[in-house]
Fold this sequence. Notes:
InterPro entries: Aromatic_deC, PyrdxlP-dep_de-COase, PyrdxlP-dep_Trfase, PyrdxlP-dep_Trfase_major, PyrdxlP-dep_Trfase_small. This is Pyridoxal-dependent decarboxylase. One of its GO terms (biological process) is carboxylic acid metabolic process. One of its GO terms (molecular function) is pyridoxal phosphate binding. By secondary structure, the chain is an alpha/beta fold. It has three domains: 9-82, dopa decarboxylase, N-terminal domain, CATH 1.20.1340; 106-367, Aspartate Aminotransferase, domain 2 (3-Layer(aba) Sandwich); 370-482, Aspartate Aminotransferase, domain 1 (Alpha-Beta Complex), CATH 3.90.1150.170. The chain is built from 15 helices and eleven strands. It has helices at residues 9-28, 41-47, 59-71, 92-104, 115-131, 146-161, 167-170, 189-196, 217-229, 252-261, 317-324, 357-367, 369-392, 418-435, 462-481, and strands at residues 139-143, 178-183, 204-207, 233-240, 265-270, 294-298, 310-314, 396-401, 406-411, 441-445, 448-454. A hairpin with a 2-residue loop joins strand 10 and strand 11. Helix 4 packs across helix 12 (357-367), helix 5 (115-131) packs across helix 12 (357-367) and helix 6 (146-161) packs across helix 11. The structure holds pyridoxal-5'-phosphate (PLP).
Amino acid sequence: MKKSLDLSHQEFKSFLEQVNQLVLGQYAELHQQKGFHDHAPKTVASWFDEPLPEDPMDLQALLTEVQNKVFAPATGNMGPNMYAYVMAGGNQMGTVAEFLAATINQNNTKWHLAPSMTEIEKRVVQWIGKAIGYSDTAAGVMVSGGSGANLTGLNVARNVFLAEQNMAQSGLFGLNPITVYGSTETHNSVEKSLVVLGIGTDNYRKIPTSVDFKIRLDLLEQAIQKDLEAGFSPFCIIGNAGTVNTGAIDDLEALAQLAKKYRMWFHVDGAYGGVAAALESVKPHYNGLEKADSVALDFHKWLYQPYEIGCTLVKDWGQLKRTFFQKADYLDTALQDTSERLEINEHYFQLSRNAKAFKVWMSIKAYGFGAIKAMIQKDIDLTRYLAQQVRLADDYELVATDVLGVACFRYSPQDMDDDKITALNQQLIPALETDGRVFITGTKLHGVFVLRACIINHRKQQSDIDYLLEVIRELGSKMITHG
Length: 483
Ligand SMILES: *Cc1c(COP(=O)(O)O)cnc(C)c1O
């Protein structure tokens, strides 16, 4: 019987060396990583079809299995050929930080369980709050991602808004329905959040956007007034700081003013574009962000962190505590004066949690925030380049782009009618997936199907953008010739 699960010092050392080889091998091939590997679901399932292993496996064989079944077919998030959804490529410091953090296995929940990690999390919240022009005294918690950040922000909003009605004790039962407002371009994690929070999607007003995909302020105010007249309690306005479809940034200043006028909570979904507010070049578009009551951020997007990490910022720690604090005898730290200890478990839903902020802290220190901002700017510049190439080409058509890193376009050879172009672009998506050289997905803008390229990867260069257009053109023209 072994004394523990640990390897001997020598065994662990040699195992780590083999792991290093695997990691370095991955980086050596990154520039040519395919966007997607088109294996049938049954095939992938078959690789893992085995009974629960009772006995140990040879470690070298295990790493070979990891290489063949997990690394080699991995979707190309890290490499330069990924344009689908909003997938950033991670970064080396973040990756190493995950390993280091797991090495000391801190439970980042109560201060005395993870003193340094707690202070690091607080510091990262302050850094980012200040960098994006929100507040350098903001409170915040690291969460799973943008969905978690929206849920957490709306959770605080609901609890603070309904504090006097005893909502935390009696629930929403018997209360006037509270209503939420966001544009039709708002991310669907808001709907998920409203279901979780018991507010319900019937109480969500999706306000149409103008041609530039920003919320129509006149229609928003009309909807609020109509709800007031009908006896609802308008409670929260959601602004987009970068929509997922086109990167549109709502008029946050105007939304803040409306929220103030009607005494509502103002939540900003900055999951995609929030961090870019730190860039001088686009900062003016974010006017009003500083007035938000809560902001959702996603660091596995434009902070290039490995999955997963998001962040909810609010104006003060008291709001988080009022939302999440619950007493438990076994968690009371009666040992010492705890007034200067931040107890994250009292400010968030989770009890046990990993040290999410550590990878952000390490990457910002290692690269410098200036270098990270320069990479975000490069993504934005490459997007302008893509838009320009699409505009100049005879067989492409630019449909929408804004000031951030998304461009929506169609492959539209001349002499083809609109229905055929739509059908062709829809068929291009599965064809590109099968081909796998680049990975791009589509969306609908005001009802029209388009290809959507998201550029959010510090490893991308101009030649990669040219390659994307070449590959689509090659497959598209083939599909035309073959009918
Ligand atoms: C990505 C995104 C989300 C969801 O974030 P996840 O990290 O995928 O949960 C929410 N809102 C916007 C605007 C996003 O771009």
